[in-house]
Amino acid sequence: MAERLTTQQVAEQLGVKVETVYAYASRGQLSSERAPGGKGSTFDAREVAELAARGRRTPVRPAAGEPSGGGPGWASEPVRVRTGLTLIEDGRLYYRGRDAVELSARYGFEAAIGWLWGLGTEAPVELRVPPATAKALARAAATLPDGTRLPDRLRISAAVAAALDPLRFDLREQTVRAAGAALIAGMVEALPRTAPDPGPDAPLAGRLWSRLATVAPAPEALACLDRALVLLIDHELAVSTVAARLAASARAHPYAVVSAGLGATDGPLHGAASPLAHRMLAEVLADGAVPVVSDYLRTGRPIPGLGHRLYPDGDPRAVALLDAVRQLDGGAAVVAAVAEVEAAAGPAGRPAQRANIDLALAAMALTAGMPAEAGEVVFAVARTPGWLAHAMEEYREEPLRMRARATYTGPRPQGNEADPSSGADRPGP
Question: What is the pLDDT of residues 257-281, one digit of tens each?
């Protein structure tokens, strides 16, 4: 028979108060049974030992009067997110130990998803939309007003797909992968077609091209878009990935996880940075870099698409994507304009600021005749399997472990001289 501990013994072993032991039990971190005779509770000694070993991984509010650092679950330090997906080190980006630039040169998006999802590059993920979902997405798209932004259509598609999936709350990895593959394809399916349809069996890059461009792609142009998707599939704990992991920590289903990530990309400092860079680069191509950059500086606006704090010597994703853009018809002039922006924005006597992936996406979109919001769409579609990969990792962790704590700066609570329920302090009629 498994050893059982009393509540007091558990409290002593964990170094917490008895009240905190009950908090662990109420949150499902410890299972309790009534003690013989019906007085008090007992706990499985192995569960207690495991909870003690996990240490500070799961934030549980301490009992009144207990120090914030006491007990295994309440950390005075930020939660460190362990991930086996992406490493950024020495100016390089790696997916599961493999250089992302090298991976993007050798494999397409479907194979890169397989690699990131732990299936290997020889098991490319099939991205297909179930027929019923495709019809529902088409009906939903038909109800949207003209001029609805493409990124907004992506968000709507995630909600529609979720409503049609009866297994969305099944968080087993094989189910999440299947739902994710259908969702990625469905997001593209939900966008209006603007170029010839390559067919449902075409790689996702071809289907996405037909929603962003107006002419069929040359092989090198399609390869360029496919490379962009691979380069953007994940980027460690970017803000949208943190949002996705937070949702997964609360055991939100994969569609909700993706919706959380999509919401975080709507700001101009993350996924929506590329449209700003697109407009700036179009001005540079028309008027030259010096007057455009000067106008940005004069008006106090940040120059979009330059610099990245994780890559002080240059974003390797941007270098790889700009190399691919340079091979396209008209791409050399656009890449030259990027170089002019870098030079014009660099302080005199100091190294020029380097283009980041947002500016490289803008260069690709301009060269391909895509609209300004194309880069934002490519970013969101590409990052979706990354969000799901992080969700699958987070589902294996303790739930609700990513509970932040605030430093309160408001007025201190006033004394409770009167019972609010008595009405003594209520104003008269």
Answer: 999 999 999 988 888 899 999 999 9
C-beta of residue 271 within 8 angstroms of C-beta of residue 240: yes
Tokens of 33: 């049974």
Phi, psi of 89 (to 5 degrees): -150, 130
Q: Whose CA is closest to 254, among 348, 179, 363?
A: 179
Which residue numbers are catalytic?
270, 308, 358
- What is the pTM for the complete model shown? 0.79
CB 354 within 8 A of CB 307: yes
CB atoms within 10 A of CB 288: 13
Residue 180 C-alpha from the chain's centroid: 14
- In this prediction, residue 363 carries a pLDDT of 98
* pLDDT at residue number 78: 52
**CB burial of residue 273 (10 Å; 0-12, 13-18, 19+):** buried
